[in-house]
Predict the 3D structure of the following.
Amino acid sequence: MLKIDFELTNELKEDYIELLCSSRFDSKYGQTVKEKYEAYTILSKEYSFEEIIFVEPHNINALVEKVEKLKINKKEIEKIFKYDGKFQPLLASFFEKHLKPRTCYYCNIDYVNVYKEEDGELKNKFTLDHFVDKGKYPYLALSLFNLVPSCYVCNSKIKRDTKFYEDEELKNTNPYLKSFDFDKKVKFKLFLSDNCKDLNIKSQDNIEIPLKERYSDEYKKYIKVFRLNERYKAHKDIVFEMIKNAELYPESRLKELQNLTGILYQEIKKDIFKLMDDEVDLSKEPFSKLKRDMAYELGLI
């Protein structure tokens, strides 16, 4: 649902490689993941470790097509790039430090950086989903642009092992892609029951807030896979509250408050309705896309 804007500098690359190589196989004197990969010459003679780890999102599909033609032993590759207790906390710490994820990029429904206590320690709740299945394509298990910070529901309950790479309708929906423009093309729309006039709505049951795509069906299956319409139905109360506030605070009332407080009514309006500018990073707050789209639907911005 939300694009991931992540500029990978040389400093970040060095940090990521150092992090991956900070853990060794078998013992503290064993090989690093990079050394183990470079010893597997069938693949490493075609691609350097860095080319695999930092493959650009728009090049992932082409890389998979080429690697799949090589005679590689995927069991051996899986042992090298095994995404387990060795690497999970390292990768999570990298994303926490450099991307600072706050909500799930797939659904934008819940905070994912809320900590919970496990065995006396505080653990981050967000998971890292492998956009391209790590089980079938193990050489991408640690590739940076194949890791999407997401909530447990999207990752483990809904998406699970959906073959995004193998599906023509899904393979180009990696949120790291510059071409990923879900927010621009897909909007929440407000529909009212026939008995509602002039926003005179008595209950949230009188409203529907489906996602509607303009000019294409590019994200139709994406919406279906993550069950976005079904899941957002449970949160119509957010929109209902916005509608009630719109009734309580028409422009005339906002200008009265401006005269009373000396604060510009546009600022008062922004505070009451929690309005967001188009440039704001929607990933930092749950339901931010829903709220902004509904603000346009209600004529608040």
About this structure: The chain has 15 helices and eight strands.
